[in-house]
Amino acid sequence: MARPDEFTFAPLGGVGEIGMNLSIYGLGNRAQRSWLAVDLGVSFGDEEHLPGIDLIMPDIRFLEKEKKNLVGLVLTHAHEDHFGAIIDLWPKLGCPIYATKFSASLFAAKLAAERTTLKIPITEVPSGGSIDLGPFSVEFIPVAHSIPESHALAIRTSVGTVLHTGDWKIDPTPVVGPPTDEARLRQLGDEGVLALIGDSTNAVRDGRSPSEAEVAVSLAGLIKSAKGRVAVTTFASNVGRIRAVADAAKAAGREVVLVGRAMDRVAQVARETGHLDGVQSFRGPEYYGHFPPDKVLALCTGSQGEPRAALARIARDDHPEITLNKGDCVIFSSRTIPGNEKAVGSIINGLVTQGIEVITDRDHLVHVSGHPRRDELREMISWVRPQLLIPVHGEALHLNAHAKLARQMGVPKVMTCRNGDLIRLGPGDPAVIDQLPSGRLYKDGTILEQDTSRAVVERRKMAFAGCAFVALALTEAGELADDPEVDLVGMPENNTAGEPLEDIVFDAVVATVEGLPRARRRDPDSVAESVRRTVRSIVQAEWGKKPLCTVHVLTV
Ligand SMILES: [Zn+2]
Ligand SMILES: [Zn+2]
Fold first, then answer.
1. In angstroms, what is the span from residue 79 Cα to ligand 2's centroid?
2. Bond preceding residue 427 cis, omega within 30 of 0
3. For residue 47, is pLDDT > 80?
4. Residues facing 469 on adjacent strands
5. Is the pLDDT of residue 1 over 70?
6. Mean pLDDT in residue range 362-376
7. How many CA atoms lie within 13 A of 20 on its CB side?
8. Which DSSP state fits 285?
9. Are 505 and 529 in contact (CB under 8 A)?
10. How far is CA 218 from CA 67, 212, 213, 304, 360, in A?
């Protein structure tokens, strides 16, 4: 007798971390499963821990192996943590991709901006529409978020229905797009939902996230009362915010100048897809100087302090077209993502020093999160009434808070999991039934590397303690044929007594080689290892730090 089908779920990224989202759903049994992938996003590296790594992506070894059973990749929305890895990873999968119009168009614009001839087709699905993919039927249910066209996915199978929330909040007045479709989610709850896989980002925050419309009112007041020039920076993908700023500018009799490539790209896609209908047209930065200070507003990229983005250049007075002076105003309509505090702080300090007024979400309601707080999570649970809830999209703290809230709400089963856990959602009791290969890939320059790669570890060590290079030539009898070469990179020249470190290392290398028994001196590997140990410990004794050390031994 054939085994009954199981409905399974595995996060391959995005659990225990915020970023790099990739979830897969399976239908079948141990012998054969069909797979559906949801989202394929990136995380951003930080210079201190991962020097030289800009992007981190989920390891998709498992999906590559199961490629022939992968029925498609479905995108909830077009934030980088949900779709940023497609250009790099999709070529390994080659599966069909499905998304609604805005996400598909923004992806096409992003791909066109890359120096690549790669063609990656995305099939458009209407918002609110459904598609059948193998044994899965996927319905795109509109939810409010901080980018247009975010969707929760109702994934129906012969075993039951999952609601994969994607990123969402309850915002009755989202400025762009419809609010979260409460009626449809309640209907889904009436039909019966096996499991809810849900956004935990703000699960430690009480109450409700304020509406985008409240931010719009606050921005309008600030922009109206400004006397000089105004610059606003926000996440380029937040089209609702772009719209709110544009409307506020119009009400204050100001023209909007867009500054920064990402802002241009999103604005253009938003126009083409109808999300900026009725909004005044924007102007290029070349027009900025043509208007009196109180008749212009610059909408800029760079809210995270990115050094090459528009705002950082303006703050350094290094922008060819956009300048600010004493008495002008900069509004950060954004949140500083952890890790970027120093960069943002230095821009703010630079502006304040020039006498420019800086407004952030610490003093005014100029930003709201796109994720649900606790009262919103409770409401979602009460609409959908799942039998099982699995928190995702969060660090451990957020996942636990979401799980605890679900238990308090009386959800019959609540499970927390880790990237790589394969969970049977049904039939029967949910359980972790397997571990799938999972992990992280680093985008290092143009190369994708496993996170176990030595390159990053070595760079981090080198940044801290430099590197010593030693080259030796030995005769067949095991004597030094010439003076060793010693080269110290990234180290101080002298010790505290003023003696050159290079001389100290040189003497230690010679003494080590000459001190080795003759038999060992004939083994180049053994000589190299002894010299390496000596160099590292002598430098440590002289400097207090242990450098990397490479020793080459030639036999002549
Ligand atoms: Zn997200
Ligand atoms: Zn998002």
1. 5
2. yes
3. no
4. 487, 550
5. no
6. 97
7. 26
8. G
9. no
10. 49, 10, 9, 21, 12
pTM: 0.92
Ligand positioned closest to the Cα atom of 43: 1
State in Å: Cα 78 to ligand 2 middle: 7
Nearest residue to 415 via CA among 386, 443, 441:
386
Summarize pLDDT for 443-467 with one digit per residue, the tens: 999 999 988 888 988 998 999 999 9
If you measure from the C-alpha of residue 20 to the centroid of ligand 1, how many angstroms do you get, rounded to a whole number? 8
DSSP one-letter string for 60-71 = -HHHHHTGGGEE
Q: Token match 């083409």: residue?
A: 272
Q: Residue 51 corresponds to which tokens in the numbers above?
A: 């020097």
Residues with CB under 5 A from ligand 1 (ion): 81, 167
Beta bridge partners of 298: 231, 257
Hey, what are 437's tokens? 């290969």
Distance from the CA of 168 to the center of ligand 1, in angstroms?
9
How confident is the model over 542-554, as pLDDT tens digits?
A: 999 999 999 999 9
Percentages of the chain per state (helix, strand, coil), in multiples of 5: 35, 25, 40
Which tokens sit at 247?
A: 């409307």
Question: Number of C-alpha atoms within 13 angstroms, CB side, residue 385?
Answer: 8
Of the listed ligands, the closest to the CA of 168 is 2
**How close is the Cα of 277 to the center of ligand 1, in Å?**
26
Cα 228 to ligand 1 centre (Å)? 36
Q: How confident is the model at residue 106 (pLDDT cuts 50, 70, 90)?
A: very high
Q: For the chain, give the longest Cα–Cα distance.
A: 89
Distance CA 17, CA 8 (A): 21
The 10 Å Cβ neighbour count of residue 217 is: 13
Ligand 1 center to 39 CA (angstroms):
10
Reported confidence tier of residue 272, pLDDT bands at 50, 70, 90: very high
CA distances from 191 to 8, 140, 194, 366, 384 (A): 20, 16, 10, 40, 9
